[in-house]
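To illustrate the input format used throughout this study, we show a single complete record. The first block contains the structure-token representation of the backbone; no residue identities are included at this stage. The design step must infer an amino acid for every position from geometry alone.
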């Protein structure tokens, strides 16, 4: 009896699904590699022709693009993660006056990054001394600014800006200048003159 077309296709599918045929074709990895090779050989790049030369040029261009993205984006993302998790204080607590004195000494020597870091730490200690923020080790500049902004809403924006400056300079590698330190001095004066808003 001659099988019809559907039955013949079914028999052929079953026959080719046998293990002896799969072994003859090799592992799935070998089959995937063969398929990829066939696709690449058919690739045509305008102006470059076909075959492995075109593929090589495309691969080199893609590698250069990935390298450029990692070079530009990698350090930015790393510094953002680092600054987001980095605590303000790395040593035992000191009075605000000690931090401000070190900030002034660093500024007098033109060491602006140190001046900015110490001035912000002095600002935080002054907020703790006024009991406007709770002293808790390991907190970030952003967390402290958010808490202090709740007690001093008129200074919230300035505190957020100061925290961002501290993170950028201390952990993000941004160079500080005299202007950066002056801006932080202004924030310190503004916060020092501000009166807290009492909440029920």
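Output of the design step:
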């Amino acid at each position: 009896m001659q099988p019809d077309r559907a039955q013949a296709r079914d028999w052929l599918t079953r026959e080719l699904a046998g293990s002896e045929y799969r072994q003859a074709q090799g592992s799935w990895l070998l089959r995937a590699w063969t398929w990829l090779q066939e696709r690449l050989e058919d690739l045509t790049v305008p102006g470059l022709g076909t075959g492995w030369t075109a593929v090589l040029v495309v691969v080199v261009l893609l590698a250069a693009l990935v390298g450029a993205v990692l070079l530009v984006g990698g350090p930015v993302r790393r510094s953002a993660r680092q600054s987001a998790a980095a605590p303000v204080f790395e040593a035992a607590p000191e009075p605000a006056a000690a931090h401000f004195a070190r900030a002034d000494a660093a500024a007098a020597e033109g060491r602006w990054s140190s001046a900015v870091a110490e001035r912000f730490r002095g600002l935080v200690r002054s907020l703790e001394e006024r009991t406007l923020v709770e002293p808790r080790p390991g907190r970030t500049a952003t967390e402290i600014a958010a808490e202090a902004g709740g007690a001093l809403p008129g200074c919230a924006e300035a505190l957020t800006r100061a925290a961002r400056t501290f993170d950028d300079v201390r952990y993000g590698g941004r160079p500080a200048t005299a202007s950066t330190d002056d801006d932080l001095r202004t924030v310190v004066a503004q916060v020092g003159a501000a009166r807290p808003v009492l909440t029920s």
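Structural context for interpreting the output: The CA atoms of residues 2 and 65 lie 60 Å apart. Strands lie at 44-45, 49-50.
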